[in-house]
Amino acid sequence: MVTFTVRPISPAEHLDHVRSQRSVSFLQTPAWAGVKTEWRSESLGWYAGDRLVGTGLVLHRPVPRLGRTLAYLPWGPDIDWAGGLTVWFPPLVSYLRSQGAFAIRIAPPVPTDTWTAAQVKDGIADPDVVRLTDLPGSISSVGAEVTRYLREAGWIPQNPEHGFGAGQPQFTYEIPLRHADGTARSEDDVLRGMNQLWRRNIKKAVKAGVEVTTSAGGEDLKAFHDLYVHTAERDRFTARPLAYFEKMFAALSAEEPGRIALYLARHHGDLVAATIYVRVGAHAWYVYGASSTDKRDVRGSNALQWAMIRDSLAAGCDVYDLRGITPTLAADDPHVGLIQFKVGTGGQAVRYVGEWDLLLRPVLYRAFDLYMRRRGR
Predict the structure, then answer these.
(1) Burial 274-311 (b: 16+ CB within 10 A, else e)
(2) 376 pLDDT tier (thresholds 50, 70, 90)
């Protein structure tokens, strides 16, 4: 059996490996360390002899005054999850233990189940169905094996019932941009996969004169943030500060030109919607969005989504990722509107393995968990 070693690598070595892959989460790029500057970070490499075969960005979250850390690999690591995990994980655990980690948290980028848009739509219409998991989906054998391995190896799942926790969402909504045989889908094919309301709203935006432009940030980022704060107040979520987005654009843009972009929808000069788009290799993400309460009837948000999908197709992407959804399908749940909006694009709902913790020092872990609960994470 092949044995691996894990050791630190430079950001340049890490980036070279990312560029060799079709899909790596932007949260696992070396640039993300430049966004999460409040945590100590390091790039790790798995080696088979002298050959680099896997990478991971580790964010070390410290326990105040104790000098120990939670070692977190968001949407990672980037390894061969279909391979034998018994050779991948022991060297990672050994290394992070030696670096003072009291626990390790991972979020494998591995699906366990998928549901088509038609299945989700039928589930929303069925009063006896309240969650995605009430529906029969397509099951991934790799996802099932990863879940089994983690459970038997003593890892503890950290996946809240409603799908959103302190870390990454377990449920996402994605639009495949390739057919089952690997050939690229066309714009017309993707449009045909959308529901009638989505197609109508895209046309309505064009007819209303909505103009979509892209930007590398700069002064436009302040306009986005103003609209984002307005959206947060309307929809009752906590907005991130402008400095966070400035840091995000600076770090990701420096790593790879075009890695991150701002999309802006204007109607007669008024900014009506704005989004942040990220692409790594053949995977594209809709990361943040904002919209004006006024002029919602011109459908700026639909225009932006279509623009980002078209650009993803033009870039040869495999998937356009609308990121998190909650698994609820109950008509009276306030979160169901999110999945209803996204299901109109066609595509599929996906459940991932989720986040899992391995406790290396249980007493410290419990103290950290209590500390995080008291400060609301």
Answers:
(1) bbbbbbbbbbbbbebbbbbeebeebbbbbbbbbbbbeb
(2) low
DSSP SS3 for 198: helix
Residue 175 half-sphere exposure toward CB, CA atoms < 13 A: 29
131: number of Cβ within 10 Å: 17
Structural domains in the chain plus CATH codes: 5-107+355-374 (3.40.630.30), 112-138+170-352 (3.40.630.30)
Please count the other Cβ atoms lying within 10 Å of the Cβ belonging to residue 25. 23
Q: Which of 78, 100, 148, 72 is nearest to 355 (CA)?
A: 72
CA distance 249 to 254: 8
The pTM of this model reads 0.93
Q: Any bridge partners for residue 222, and if so which?
A: none
Question: pLDDT (tens digit, 9 = 90+) per residue, 313-327?
Answer: 999 999 999 999 999
**Structure-block tokens of residue 195:** 């529901």
- Cβ atoms of 25 and 45 closer than 8 Å: no
User: Across residues 278-283, what is the average pLDDT?
Assistant: 97
Please tell me the distance from the alpha carbon of residue 258 to that of residue 215, in angstroms, as a whole number. Answer: 10
Does an H or E element contain 278, and which? Answer: strand 270-280
* pLDDT tens track for 138-190: 999 999 999 999 999 999 999 766 555 557 899 999 999 999 999 999 999 99
189 to 58, 199, 221, 330, 345: CA distances (angstroms)? 39, 12, 33, 30, 12
